Structure formats: structure tokens, C-alpha cells
Predict the structure.
Amino acid sequence: MLRLLVVDDDASIPESIRLLVPDGWLVVSCDPSKNPLPNPCGFDAAIVDMHLTAQQGAEGIQVIRKLLSQNPAMAVLGASGDSSIDLMSKAISVGAQWFLAKPVNANELLSRLRFIESYLKLLRYTDNNRWIGRSPVSLNILREIALCSIDTRPTLIQGESGAGKEVAASLIRKLLEPKPWISVNIAAIPDNLFESELFGHAKGAFTGADQARIGLIEAARNGTIFLDEIETLSLQNQAKLLRFLETGEVRRVGSSAITSIECRVVVASNIDLKTLVSEGRFREDLYWRLYGSVINIPSLRERKPDILETATFFLSRNKYGESKVITAEAADFLEGHTWPGNVRELRQVMDSLARTSPLPFIRKVDVEASLQKFSSASNSSTCDQSSPGSQIESSDIELSEGYERLISKFELSLFQKALATHQGVDEAARTLGMSRSNLYKKLKRYSLLT
């Protein structure tokens, strides 16, 4: 049973809300002019009237502050018959998620409660693929994820590699279950196969097409298609995706038949798409189509209060580290590190510490050694131009082959070696000092993806 606190000096308001809320909600009223506020930790959400006495002033602002100071995870809605923009803005600025105009519209209230139900589900997930962290920044991310789950517009998830975009997408998926969810890594699809993969193809459309096949968008009918690393999509294929977003129609390769598909689109990017638009590498019209709902995932260094909680989580889920404790000195060191690899890097470091730390405690010296090990592994694979033999001998270069061909030969050899000496693309990209999406592009170009 979800508990909703209604703070209002008008007794008819809580009564009317009781009649409107769906099953599963218990409404508790409080008139602060007569009774003290109950402990907010016993409630999941609150609706707070702004004017709680006959005197001039917005006492509700102070109530919102008090509720959230004691229960930061609470979902709070402001409410008033006063249509002052300043008042509404003030309520939002102190932590209210929305503002309800009185008299409360039933459909609007139900919509907000659906959002709150989704948000509370995210807070209560206990599996390994949940969002770790309860800092104000993380709580805001969870609210954005919950809002996206009830929004049918395209959703864009942006953030650095390893920051948590895949977790955000998986949480949207959980909230939308049991509807279909199809995940696609755009970087792993060769440009010439994008159309047939996404839209399908007719029998005989090209060599090897012995039978007709539906595309991934069609497979996601009445559900969601998740396009990861959308920034790697070529301009030519961006136009094809844009057409689907505008019309909701697909045409299989080699067929003239057009099929209408209802399908929600969620995309993720390691790079700010607005930057790519300014560089001419991403279509502006597609950008605005995808900009219906946006979740910006901050880097781990931008949410330092979450670092220790996240590190403890990774340690506890490892069978070698579940009984180990992070010392205060090590915790300070973890929080002071910049984590260029974000959560992915932190997970690797904690998994390593779980296995290698000799004591039941994780000390600062253990963390330093683990970070140094990863740093050394990366540096050992990079070229030191000052050392003998690190540069290509000019006598080995046939200039008549031309610049482009020589560079291509070198890159092919470089990426073949990187894949052969590393466990996966992520590790190779980190050693080479490249983003995962850029390395994927190169691997696609040289047909090195399997």
C-alpha cells in the first residue's frame, strides 16, 4: 500500500483526492494549523497546499522543504488555487516535482500518481541491474527515468561511456514490461546492412536473402526499440531512421509494401548529439525528433556522494569481497579519484580489490595499487615515441602507396593487435585512449567485427 500525505487546511481537498486515487493508495490528511506534520519517512508522496492559513504568505514552501529534508526520496506535488507563476516556480525550486492547480483535475492527478508509482518501483528494485546511489543527482535521474516510462515520445539518453546509460535503458525496460523490447547496438551493424536489419527485407532482395525477414522495428511492434550508440549512425542511414520517426511506416528492402508500426524509440549516445549537429555529423531534424524526452546521465565524478555506495555494492556482490569493509581513508581516496572510465572503471577496480586485497579491509594502499595496475596495463600498450624502436622506420614505408593507403594499413594492423591482446572492445578502446563508439566505427570499416 502506497501512502500519500495531503497537507491542506481545507478538509474537502483530502476527501476529494481519496475519491480520485487508484487502488493501492492510502490517503492521510494533515492540517498543520491544527496538528503537527507526521514523520515524512512513513510516506511515499505528498500533495502540499501553498496557503495553509488565512494569513498572507506561502507556508507550503516551508512544508515542502521540511518534508524533503527528512525524506529526500519522497515525491512531492505543490498545489494551490493561486495561479502565480512566481509561486509555482518557487515550489519547484525547493524540490516539488509538479504543481497542481486547484480545483485538481482528475486526469492530471492520475497521471502524476502513475509517475510516482514508477519512481517508487525504481527506488525499490533490489536486483543487480538497479541504479545505485541516493544522492540528489541520482534521485533526479530516477525521476527522469520514471517520467520517460509514461511518455510515448522518443527518449534520448546521453552521457559518457560507462556512466550508466545502459542501466537507465534497462530500468525503462523494466517499467514497460511485459511489452516487447528490442535492443540494437548501432555501432555493431555495418552501414550497408542497417536498412535490412531495422526494416527487414523481402525474399530475393539481395544475394543470400533466401527468405523474407521482418526487421527489428517490426519485431518491436507495440513495444520499444532501443538504439544504442546512435552517434555512430551514418548520415545516409539517419535519413532512413528519420523517415520512420516521422511516418511510423517501414518498407522492407526489396518490397514496395509499406507497413505501419506503432513502436516507441529509445536511443543512447556517448556524445552530446547537439555537438555532432554543430559539426555536421548528425542531422538537426533527426536530433529534434529524438529530443522528445531527454535523460542526461552525469559522469561518476559529478555525483561523488554515490561513489562509496556504488563501490560497496560492487564489493558486496563479489564472493571474494562480500565480507570486506572499505576503510575511511580508502573511501576518501575513492571519492577523490576522477574515474575517467566512470562506473565501469569503478566496478573493475572493486572486483580486482575483492580478489587481491590481503586483509578483511580495503585500504587506501590497496586502492592505489589496483588503480596503478590498470594504469600500467594501459600505458604498456601505448607507444612511447622517445624509446628506441617505437617509431616506424622510414625505410619500411613505400611512399608510392599514398597517404590514405599507408594510414589504412597501419590502422588495420593496430586494431588487429588490439583485439588479439585484449578481452573485448571496451578494454581495447580504453588502452588505445579511444571512445568505444569510435573504435567500433574503425572496426566496422576494416570488417573486424565478428
Residues 136-297 form a domain with the Rossmann fold fold (CATH 3.40.50.300). Residues 196 and 308 are 45 Å apart (CA to CA). The chain has four domains: 2-119, 136-297, 304-370, 399-445. The chain is about 45% helix and 15% strand.
